[in-house]
């Protein structure tokens, strides 16, 4: 049989470079016993790797581990297992026939022979190479090897042979055939699914692995197989549900894939389910590892070791390849951390942290060196100078490196230093001097000794005069907007530098920020004064000047009082509110060190533009008053109120608004504006008005009362319009004559009662459209784009059918009349010009009168053909020259095309700049004279015209002011001649005039 190890048996260790020269000894263990020559010569150690030749299943299977040792200690590798895969043959005994009815389900057992290693199962149908294909009806379990047929059909009759393949050895064996025959006693009826292939109730799945769940059912009809999660979470895209083969596959298994899964088998006769829980596990993975350290004797060691994994890993430590047993005194292991106190030389060695759970172990290595050292000051010399103020305490630190710790003594100058009630040598070797005096200044030496040697270090102690702030504490008083200097004067030892630091309410002042209010102004070495400019209320508080030298630090506090406008009042409350008044109360805010002299009340409504001052009783609210009545409010309106306080310095910020309060309702007093109307359909009186704004409706249930009567009548007809937003009322009655005058007035009401009516106005009822058509309609083409239309006006008749104007309809021969264009006139006008029509086109035209009721009958239709379009070619070869004070323009004659109107003349348009209105000169020749420009250039264009209108313009040319005479210009070229010759100048193309 072919043997394959689960792990590669290779050792890998990390040593510091300085250790590379140390001889390394490598060994291997099998099942906990060191491999030696007694195991046989087929074990070969090569460069740390263990090679095994002539593998033997009984002798070589087991757990292997590598050990690496040198003079610094021993470490071990993780364990590796070696197993052997094999596959024996089936027993040759014949298998009995399996007899089933048609439509019945059947299970054919494989019964694989003894084996080791993963197997793959398949089935041969009758003879090789015909294999059973899996589908919704047939399933081969890769767990048991059995063949399942959900519903047997006649085509399934035959011999079935199980084929087993070992995925490791690649060997294949096949069992004896199993005959499948049909019974002759009838066909199996329909029955509900019976799940024969089930996955375990609990399945443990490793992180990152692939899990496959099998589920298959027998049944008639053939059951469908579906998968779902019991918690309702949908499957991710990576999950493969191969329904035909009854397998759910989840690759790269993660924590979120854990849960209970359910297989549902269903057909028309019923449903059956099976559930199983997938739990997530992960072998340990180290996230924090110990590192090599070097410690002195008697030091302490703490090594952290942390790992992830599920279930949560446990920890153990090894020293030199052996498990380290914690002791209550010096060695402790807690949550993976190893701590050793009072280190000794015997603690030196190689340590390993092992994090493990039932799914594996993770190893981490580190070296501990405990060293002995003679006293050494090379890394921690005494400070060359230690400063202390007279009367202060001095500490001269002495930190020699030595292991183990020895004895420390001191000298002042050349004399040994004796301890006293002011002088003490501390346990860590440092020297403490209390209440220092000038006589304590001098040279001090620290001497350190242990059994390995002695060393010393020297430094100087200097005693300085103390720093004293000469400015006394005080309270300063200032008004908002003023500036003030805060003083800070000191006396000090002249050999020391001073550092001034200021704090405001214990917060450091950063000069240059804080809006530029703070500025340093202390010009002398012993002064740290600052100035506060444009002081605000927020600057009131405690200011601290801190002075620091190398030997001491002191501070002084100054209190600053800032007087300013009062703070906002509080607790503004509406005590009582009726239709037009409200009683308010409030509490005073801070007076900011200046008594409050008066209060101002403001109000805001949904209809106001911000806050507005209100009328109060009393009219002036004094500073000692905390109540007032607001008057002249609008009924049925929600109000908010706020209060502002004033003192001799000014008016402060407003209070927070009061809660909204609505005034009580009363009958309305404001009537609608702009009552008018008219128009509408026959027999209608249309009345319109502007709705009354909500703020003047004075209560709910607001509406309008419309009163009207015919002109000359005495009684009023009334109608209620119960909508505050309404702006229109229509009275319809067949007896109303067209365009009859009515007296109309509109009043108001709400739930509180009726209000007044507005003024009476006269409104006419709807009129009838004109009853006659205009006569004597004439149409004449003025140009290719213009038609003049005229008619005889209709008289104002006794039937009161007004004529407000006339409507001209026109359409071309290619258009339908209902698509006609419309042009209207106003009043008694009897002609109009239609512009924008097409040239050489026949148009049909009719005219009808109109008023507010509509249009009257049309006139007779007339037709007219527009003139030919104007010339499309612009004048070419425009040339100009000057003579004395004139400009002479010449151009070629424009010839009209066959479908264009003849050229009857030319228009010359000229102006002095592009924004001025052009002058126009007409001529029937191809030449004109203009006055020479004296102050500005000329901008000129030329266009032909005929009876069809104006044609296309020439390009725009510019004639500059030219000193002297005899200048000649051409649009196409420039040439320079002799002094007596003309000068050709080109024109500049511009945008159209």
UniProtKB/TrEMBL annotation:
<dbReference type="Pfam" id="PF00041">
    <property type="entry name" value="fn3"/>
</dbReference>
<feature type="region of interest" description="Disordered">
    <location>
        <begin position="650"/>
        <end position="681"/>
    </location>
</feature>
<dbReference type="InterPro" id="IPR036116">
    <property type="entry name" value="FN3_sf"/>
</dbReference>
<keyword id="KW-0472">Membrane</keyword>
<feature type="domain" description="Fibronectin type-III">
    <location>
        <begin position="671"/>
        <end position="768"/>
    </location>
</feature>
<dbReference type="GO" id="GO:0007420">
    <property type="term" value="P:brain development"/>
</dbReference>
<protein>
    <submittedName>
        <fullName>Contactin 4</fullName>
    </submittedName>
</protein>
<feature type="compositionally biased region" description="Polar residues">
    <location>
        <begin position="856"/>
        <end position="866"/>
    </location>
</feature>
<keyword id="KW-0336">GPI-anchor</keyword>
<dbReference type="InterPro" id="IPR007110">
    <property type="entry name" value="Ig-like_dom"/>
</dbReference>
<dbReference type="Pfam" id="PF07679">
    <property type="entry name" value="I-set"/>
</dbReference>
<feature type="domain" description="Ig-like">
    <location>
        <begin position="88"/>
        <end position="174"/>
    </location>
</feature>
<dbReference type="GO" id="GO:0098552">
    <property type="term" value="C:side of membrane"/>
</dbReference>
<feature type="domain" description="Ig-like">
    <location>
        <begin position="466"/>
        <end position="555"/>
    </location>
</feature>
<dbReference type="InterPro" id="IPR013098">
    <property type="entry name" value="Ig_I-set"/>
</dbReference>
<feature type="domain" description="Ig-like">
    <location>
        <begin position="193"/>
        <end position="279"/>
    </location>
</feature>
<dbReference type="InterPro" id="IPR003599">
    <property type="entry name" value="Ig_sub"/>
</dbReference>
<dbReference type="GO" id="GO:0005886">
    <property type="term" value="C:plasma membrane"/>
</dbReference>
<keyword id="KW-0393">Immunoglobulin domain</keyword>
<dbReference type="InterPro" id="IPR003961">
    <property type="entry name" value="FN3_dom"/>
</dbReference>
<keyword id="KW-1003">Cell membrane</keyword>
<dbReference type="InterPro" id="IPR036179">
    <property type="entry name" value="Ig-like_dom_sf"/>
</dbReference>
<feature type="domain" description="Fibronectin type-III">
    <location>
        <begin position="568"/>
        <end position="666"/>
    </location>
</feature>
<feature type="domain" description="Ig-like">
    <location>
        <begin position="25"/>
        <end position="83"/>
    </location>
</feature>
<keyword id="KW-0732">Signal</keyword>
<feature type="domain" description="Fibronectin type-III">
    <location>
        <begin position="870"/>
        <end position="965"/>
    </location>
</feature>
<keyword id="KW-0449">Lipoprotein</keyword>
<keyword id="KW-1015">Disulfide bond</keyword>
<keyword id="KW-0677">Repeat</keyword>
<feature type="domain" description="Fibronectin type-III">
    <location>
        <begin position="773"/>
        <end position="869"/>
    </location>
</feature>
<feature type="domain" description="Ig-like">
    <location>
        <begin position="284"/>
        <end position="369"/>
    </location>
</feature>
<feature type="domain" description="Ig-like">
    <location>
        <begin position="375"/>
        <end position="462"/>
    </location>
</feature>
<keyword id="KW-0325">Glycoprotein</keyword>
<comment type="similarity">
    <text>Belongs to the immunoglobulin superfamily. Contactin family.</text>
</comment>
<comment type="subunit">
    <text>Interacts with PTPRG.</text>
</comment>
<keyword id="KW-0130">Cell adhesion</keyword>
<dbReference type="InterPro" id="IPR013783">
    <property type="entry name" value="Ig-like_fold"/>
</dbReference>
<dbReference type="Pfam" id="PF13927">
    <property type="entry name" value="Ig_3"/>
</dbReference>
<dbReference type="InterPro" id="IPR003598">
    <property type="entry name" value="Ig_sub2"/>
</dbReference>
<dbReference type="GO" id="GO:0098632">
    <property type="term" value="F:cell-cell adhesion mediator activity"/>
</dbReference>
<dbReference type="GO" id="GO:0007411">
    <property type="term" value="P:axon guidance"/>
</dbReference>
<dbReference type="GO" id="GO:0030424">
    <property type="term" value="C:axon"/>
</dbReference>
């Amino acid at each position: 049989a072919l043997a394959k190890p689960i792990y590669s048996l290779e050792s890998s260790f990390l040593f510091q470079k300085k250790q590379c020269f140390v001889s390394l000894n490598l060994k291997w263990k099998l099942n906990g016993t060191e491999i030696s020559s007694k195991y046989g010569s087929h074990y070969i150690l090569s460069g740390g790797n263990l090679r095994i030749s002539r593998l033997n299943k009984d002798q070589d299977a087991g757990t292997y581990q590598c050990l690496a040792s040198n003079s610094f200690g021993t470490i071990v590798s993780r364990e590796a297992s070696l197993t052997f895969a094999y596959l024996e043959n089936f027993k040759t005994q014949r298998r009995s026939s399996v007899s089933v009815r048609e439509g019945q389900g059947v299970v054919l057992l494989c019964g694989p022979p003894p084996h080791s290693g993963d197997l793959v199962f398949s089935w041969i149908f009758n003879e090789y190479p015909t294999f059973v294909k899996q589908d919704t009806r047939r399933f081969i379990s890769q767990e048991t090897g059995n063949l399942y047929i959900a519903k047997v059909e006649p085509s399934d009759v035959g011999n079935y042979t199980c084929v087993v393949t070992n995925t490791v050895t690649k060997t294949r064996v096949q069992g004896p055939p199993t005959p499948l025959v049909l019974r002759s006693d009838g066909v199996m009826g329909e029955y509900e699914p019976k799940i024969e292939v089930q996955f375990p109730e609990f399945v443990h799945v490793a992180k990152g692995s692939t899990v496959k769940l099998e589920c298959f059912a027998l049944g008639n009809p053939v059951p469908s197989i579906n998968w779902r999660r019991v918690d309702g979470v949908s499957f991710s895209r990576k999950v493969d549900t191969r329904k035909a083969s009854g397998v759910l596959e989840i690759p790269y298994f993660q924590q979120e894939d854990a849960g209970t899964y359910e297989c549902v088998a269903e057909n028309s006769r019923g449903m059956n389910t099976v559930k199983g829980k997938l739990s997530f596990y992960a072998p340990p993975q180290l996230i924090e590892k110990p590192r090599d350290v070097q410690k002195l004797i008697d030091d302490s060691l703490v090594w952290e070791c942390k790992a992830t994994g599920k279930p949560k890993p446990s920890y153990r430590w090894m020293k030199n390849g052996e498990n380290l047993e914690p002791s209550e005194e010096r060695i402790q292991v807690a949550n993976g951390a190893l701590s050793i106190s009072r280190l000794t030389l015997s603690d030196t060695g190689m340590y390993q942290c092992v994090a493990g759970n039932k799914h594996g172990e993770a190893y981490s290595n580190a070296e501990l060196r405990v060293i002995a050292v003679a006293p050494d000051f090379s890394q921690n010399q005494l400070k060359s100078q230690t400063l202390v103020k007279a009367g202060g305490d001095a500490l001269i630190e002495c930190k020699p490196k030595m292991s183990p710790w020895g004895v420390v003594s001191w000298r002042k100058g050349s004399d040994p230093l004796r301890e006293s009630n002011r002088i003490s040598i501390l346990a860590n070797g440092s020297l403490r001097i209390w209440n220092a005096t000038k006589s304590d200044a001098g040279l001090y030496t620290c001497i350190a000794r242990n059994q390995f040697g002695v060393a010393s270090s020297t430094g100087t102690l200097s005693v300085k005069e103390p720093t004293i702030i000469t400015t006394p504490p005080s309270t300063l008083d200032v008004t908002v907007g003023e500036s003030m200097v805060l003083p800070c004067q000191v006396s000090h030892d002249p050999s020391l530098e001073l550092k001034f630091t200021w704090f405001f309410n214990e917060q450091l002042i950063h000069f240059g920020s804080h809006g530029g209010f703070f500025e340093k102004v202390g010009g002398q070495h012993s002064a740290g004064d600052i100035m506060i400019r444009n002081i605000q209320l927020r600057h009131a508080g405690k200011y601290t000047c801190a002075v620091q030298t190398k030997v001491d630090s002191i501070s002084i506090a100054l209190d600053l009082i800032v007087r300013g406008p009062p703070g906002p009042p509080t607790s503004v409350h509406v005590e009582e509110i009726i239709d037009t008044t409200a009683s308010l109360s409030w509490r005073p805010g801070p007076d900011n060190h200046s008594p409050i002299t008066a209060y101002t009340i403001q109000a805001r409504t949904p209809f106001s533009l911000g806050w507005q001052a209100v009328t109060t009783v009393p009219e002036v609210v004094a500073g000692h008053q905390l109540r007032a009545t607001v008057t002249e409010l609008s009924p049925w309106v929600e109000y908010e109120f706020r209060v502002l306080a004033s003192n001799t310095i000014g008016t402060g910020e407003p209070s927070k608004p009061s809660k909204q309060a609505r005034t009580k309702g009363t009958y309305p007093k404001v009537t609608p504006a702009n009552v008018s109307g008219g128009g509408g359909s026959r027999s209608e009186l249309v009345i319109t008005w502007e709705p009354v704004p909500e703020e003047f409706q004075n209560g709910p249930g607001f509406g309008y009362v419309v009163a009207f009567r015919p002109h000359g009548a005495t009684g009023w007809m009334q109608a209620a319009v119960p909508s505050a937003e309404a702006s229109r009322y229509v009275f319809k009655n067949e007896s109303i004559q067209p365009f009859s005058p009515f007296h109309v007035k509109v009043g108001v009401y709400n739930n509180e009662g009726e209000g007044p009516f507005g003024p009476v106005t006269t409104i006419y009822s709807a009129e009838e459209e004109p009853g006659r058509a205009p006569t004597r309609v004439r149409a004449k083409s003025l140009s290719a784009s213009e038609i003049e239309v005229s008619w005889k006006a209709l008289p104002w008749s006794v039937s009161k059918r007004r004529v407000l104007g006339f409507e001209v309809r026109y359409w071309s021969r290619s258009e339908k009349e209902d698509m006609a264009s419309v042009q209207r006139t106003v009043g008694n006008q009897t002609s109009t010009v239609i512009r924008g029509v097409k040239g050489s086109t026949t148009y049909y035209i009719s005219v009808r009168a109109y008023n507010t009721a509509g249009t009257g009958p049309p006139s007779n239709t007339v037709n007219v053909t527009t003139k030919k379009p104007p010339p499309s070619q612009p004048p070419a070869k425009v040339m100009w020259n000057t003579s004395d004070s004139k400009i002479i323009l010449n151009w070629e004659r424009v010839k009209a095309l066959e479908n264009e109107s003849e050229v009857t003349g030319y228009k010359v348009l000229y102006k002095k700049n592009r924004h001025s209105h052009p002058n126009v000169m007409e001529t029937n020749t191809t030449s004109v004279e203009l006055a020479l420009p004296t102050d500005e250039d000329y901008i000129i264009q030329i266009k032909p015209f005929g009876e069809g209108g104006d044609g296309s313009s020439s390009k725009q040319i510019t004639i500059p002011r030219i000193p002297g005479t005899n200048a000649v210009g051409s649009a196409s070229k420039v040439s320079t001649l002799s002094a007596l010759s003309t000068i050709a100048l080109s024109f500049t193309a511009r945008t159209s005039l």
